[in-house]
Amino acid sequence: MSIAEPPPLKTQPSKTQNPLGSAKGLNSGALGLIGNTVIGLSSVAPAYSLAATLGYVVLAVGDKAPSMFLVAFIPMLLTAFAYRELNRDTPDCGTSFTWGTKAFGPWIGWMAGWGLAVSAIIVLANTAEIAAIYLFEVLGLHAAAESLAAKVLLGCFFIAAMTYVSFRGILISERLQNVLIAVQFTVLIGVSVIALSKVFGGTAGPQAITPKLDWIIPTGISMSSAAQAIILCIFIYWGWDACLAVGEETKDSERTPGRAAVLTTVILVATYVLVGYAVQSFAGFGDTGIGLNNPENVDDVLTTLGGPVAGPVAASLLLLTVSISALSSTQTTILPTARGTLSMAVYEALPRKFSTVHPRYMTPGFGTLVMGASALLFYLVLSFASANALQDSVASLGLAVAFYYGITAYACVWYFRRTLLDSARNLFMRGIFPLLGALCMTWAFVQSAVDMLRPDYGFTAFGPFGGVFVLGVGMLVVGIPLMLLCFATGSRGFFRGRTLTADTEVKVPES
């Protein structure tokens, strides 16, 4: 039977490899530790994430922005431990869906998978537009950067192009990302080092201030301000779990993806703290010029500093870097979501057409195309409905991320509950650390949702409710009728606990 057709299913032990590829027909062993880490870093899009959120973090907590990077890193690292432990037990590209189902049953597991899909759809629409706007700015086409038609046209092209790259295979994706991530980190670190050297050398200008140690100490911040900053920081870290989604295509799939996830988060926190210190110390906190309290800079304090730090060439490089970063994330965000839908279909939680794997490229072809089409539709609807709604959708993204990260961390504790006392390692790595990460994610979700209810939160409002809340919670709630539709139209075996339980081994297509 051709693997390109929706096949019947059987179970095999998780360590058994399908001769046609990985357990689900993917390109087994294509990635190593470096390639897997690059996929994770690219999915995060550090340059774009910083450009989009750093100003708002400063607006929320002032000079304590670097401390928020550290505070938000802690639950991310704790959650990464949960991902690593679950991946060692069940290296499945369904990640949160598979593990959530194994721990809590099909209904919660399905919603965890939906949380990942929602996050991807929202961010794809925004990264495509950001890539278009910044590319226009690099080329000096300022009118095009302000034109809705031009932005949408180029943004749609980027989504289509990156969907095609993802469709063509994991190796071409990795090679493209190797180049894009190298550009991002070279420019980010280079500009930060130049900025700090000018500050310490006294040539940064009168607005500059000397870096302070207490910038990394999270004191004197209200709970509401901290929650607002942390939910933003969750967004700038989000994406490292792509390492686990491509685990079935990675060498030593039980260990390498987990290591890559932890390594990715460590690299990110070091970079974010460095950039945060460089930006704050060079720009200062004035309300004019390049000052961080200037309302005109809040949308993008990063590229505003390019010219003052290192001249017009550096300014253009930063613009190009943000465009590249957004484009990079557009492609790597498609990868884990398409593989998530593949896993859901293999376990019969989605129509079996989603289990189709391209026989030549060894990618989830149908799921990849559906993911690209969904992002295009969401982008077009929000773009022509309201530019402010598109911006608010980014602000709401942290809710979906905290939602499925939290489910995954809780799933780790519950799934391994019977082995927690077998060793000190199990107690901490499978119990205490993931539980703390889950509680942090829960707090961030609840506190942020309460704040987002206010009609003055964000750029839009729906009656008495803030638009950010409506978009964030609304997109999650949409998953409930979709889940019921899947139950009603052929997925009853999954929802009745027949195809995926705590004891189910990896499902593979019959050859």
From TrEMBL:
InterPro entries: AA/rel_permease1 (IPR002293), APC_superfamily (IPR050367). It is a multi-pass membrane protein. Residues 1-21 are annotated as: Disordered. Residues 11-20 have a biased composition (Polar residues). The chain crosses the membrane at residues 33-59, 65-86, 107-136, 148-167, 179-200, 220-240, 261-285, 305-327, 361-382, 394-415, 427-446, 466-488. It comes from the Bacteria. It is found in: Cell membrane. Keywords: Cell membrane, Membrane, Transmembrane, Transmembrane helix. Residues 1-10 have a biased composition (Pro residues). The keyword Oxidoreductase does not apply. PANTHER family: AMINO ACID PERMEASE (PTHR42770:SF16), AMINO ACID TRANSPORTER-RELATED (PTHR42770). This is APC family permease. The lineage of its organism: Bacteria, Bacillati, Actinomycetota, Actinomycetes, Mycobacteriales.
